[in-house]
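Budget justification, computational time. The allocation requested in the original proposal was used primarily to generate structure tokens for proteins on the priority list. As evidence of use, we reproduce two of the resulting records. The first is shown immediately below.
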Amino acid sequence: MASVVSPVIFKEFCPLYYLLNAIPTKIQKGFRSIVVYLTALDTNGDYIAVGSSIGMLYLYCRHLNQMKKYNFEGKSESITFVKLLSCFDDLVAVGTASGRVAVFQLVSSLPGRNKQLRRFDVAGIHKSSITALAWSPNGMKLFSGDDRGKIVYSALDLDQGICNSSLVLEEPSSIVQLDYNQKVLLVSTLQRTLLFYTEEKSVKQVGTQPRK
């Protein structure tokens, strides 16, 4: 019996001018005019998150057609990675060129959801550019990787406002991708791909030959 083929839906792709027009192309810092570059991107059904070279995170709400801005306190530095998560609360993790990682717990208008913007910091473990971020589906775990091969696990307690972080793995080359599911962290580096079993703290390499 022939299988039923689902209909093909054609969509038109066009520049998101409503989004790009809400982000400045230059900012004034003293007497200097600084060009703003867009450096990181993530999307889901609710938000479009855009990181920039000036350390500003631009978060566009797709339902309300509103743009909000978030930044790190202190020195402005380029955002290198952003990762959204929609669970009971809306969360966005942000990594920078110097290794700073922050989590923003977003405000929601829905009953029983978070009513005050909160920020959690992954303090002092990464010392180089963040290259990958991965959430657990419930938002209680965040994994971050950097270009020196360090992977940090952060346990978040959103109710208590606590973030505890620790180094769980260190590779000899830059981390290029992280993905987490069912107590297993998929790690890809410039040299190899591996599975890190978070309960047993054991590593299983995918394949036998290193990447060229």
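The second record produced under the same allocation is shown here.
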Amino acid sequence: MRRIMFTYFTSDPSSKALCSPMLLSTFSHFSLFHMAANMYVLWSFSSSIVSLLGCEQFIAVYLSAGVISTFVSYVAKMATGRFEPSLGASGAIMTVLAAVCTKMPEAKLAIIFLPMFTFTAGSALKAIIAFDTAGLALGWRLFDHAAHLGGALFGMWYVTYGHELIWKNREPLVKAWHEMRTKNTGKGGGGRSN
């Protein structure tokens, strides 16, 4: 079982980098339509998520979300015996959507082809989670429901707790790094002078 899992996570059994396929799957799509739909959702929610998190934190959360949602997808596929590739792009997009919907539950949303019907972001998030939970439980293969759920749950967790636990606690490390670089640059360690 361990050998199967290892080869499932990596394309090269001798490779020790288990996260690189999960990170690269963050940029993978099933079809041109899949990519267009994901990019539309990302574009629609990008200004909100960047204003909530800032550029650096958004990139860190997005890449982490791709790895986490792909991992959740792999675990679900291993549990059900379905050995198919996982596409982490949708999971990362779901993280963005869930984070914005969690922080702004009263925001009004609409579907692109049905702009006359509006609903709250909180209702949309509940519906998406219910749909993906049903899809996972019933074995639907329309979407990667496990990746969607993993991404949505990570997005909800991150904006509720993760920002305080992870991002704010990195400040002492960043300050120490900048002080070390400034000190080395001041002593001539940053460059050569003749």
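A brief technical remark on that second record: The first helix runs from residue 2 to 9.
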